[in-house]
Amino acid sequence: MLDVEILGAPPGAPPQAEIERLVGIALASAQVEDGHLAVTFVDADTIASLNAEHRGKNGPTDVLAFPVDEAGPSAGPRELGDVVICADHTEDLREAIVHGALHLAGMDHETDDGEMLALQAELLTW
User: Fold this and answer.
1) Mean pLDDT, residues 119-123
2) Helices and strands: H and E segment counts in the chain
């Protein structure tokens, strides 16, 4: 079972049920069916700071993902990680949610041959 914690949702964000559905289909596409994750909405300054600290890139971005537990046995519920979204720098919040969840599932569009972005586009049509 997935446990999705939503923090700081701005006006205009998808409702909780829609965020949970988007996370669920993204993770299910990678055979991840249980665990806990947080989707946190932050301002531009916060995401710029995280972007600099964790990626060495200056300025705000749309979405960052911070995976925690890798696949395999754990002592309790699997902690999948955090998806951090800056609504002010995101054209499509639904796309950012799916994008972040796919990263938590282990996908990386910077190293694959387009599979992650193709899957993301497909999932968004569902």
Assistant:
1) 92
2) 4, 4
